[in-house]
Amino acid sequence: xxxxxxxxxxxxxxxxxxxxxxxxxxxxxxxxxxxxxxxxxxxxxxxxxxxxxxxxxxxxxxxxxxxxxxxxxxxxxxxxxxxxxxxxxxxxxxxxxxxxxxxxxxxxxxxxxxxxxxxxxxxxxxxxxxxxxxxxxxxxxxxxxxxxxxxxxxxxxxxxxxxxxxxxxxxxxxxxxxxxxxxxxxxxxxxxxxxxxxxxxxxxxxxxxxxxxxxxxxxxxxxxxxxxxxxxxxxxxxxxxxxxxxxxxxxxxxxxxxxxxxxxxxxxxxxxxxxxxxxxxxxxxxxxxxxxxxxxxxxxxxxxxxxxxxxxxx
Length: 314
Fold this sequence. Notes:
Elements: E1 8-10, E2 18-22, E3 27-31, H1 36-52, E4 60-64, E5 69-73, H2 80-84, H3 91-106, E6 112-114, E7 120-122, H4 128-135, H5 137-146, H6 149-167, E8 176-178, E9 187-190, E10 193-196, E11 203-205, H7 208-215, H8 224-236, H9 243-272, H10 281-292, H11 299-308
Antiparallel strand pairs: 1-2, 2-3, 3-5, 4-5, 6-7, 8-11, 9-10
């Protein structure tokens, strides 16, 4: 591995990782001192599963785990986000390609893999406790910025009950490989193929989660018509799905994910001084509004949010 001085530092993501491009080797050096188990060891383990299932994902070229880094192959600089934000490109054509990749990901049966330390890594279940803890980030980071301390405590208690109630309404079991951050900024366009990155958080969960992550992505503003069209294409390619049950799961998980995202983006600004994510919060609220009107199960949550955040819930 080359010294960092000779490598080009490239734009990072919301994690604690740093990335450096080695043009000579056509590789990326990934450095992570914090959460290095997840960001290096588990990241490579998940990539191994993706590659084994013929999904384009980073291969490990070398590792120096003791010095907090791994080297992986480079898929260039073009993300699907960059392609889709260009108004001249036909978004639907690219979304159809992405759905085909998602279908391949969701057909993965492997749950265990040996990491580069030759130890077995087993993908954990995306259970309700994790989903609740994630959604509660909204209460821990965002709500205190808007509400008084007392109101924030009362809100959190009621909010948690509503989240538990919504999770009890989910129909599909936790049996599907879930990338967990499946959106167009984590998909590279390389040699006219789609490569999947940032997969270290993968779990085994509800099959509606990654689709909600893709369609209701806060980074990419798309029309409701396109959202519906992409959703219908997914259903068309998965004929065994019970449409009514799946749509309910999709809407519940979309709302919970966007509440989580508001919490995470606030935390990134407050704790990590990454303020660029704050500008995406209004669109997350827009997505919550869009989905929360769709089914009666959301009535109590909608009233609770309306009472405490009337500026955002309409």
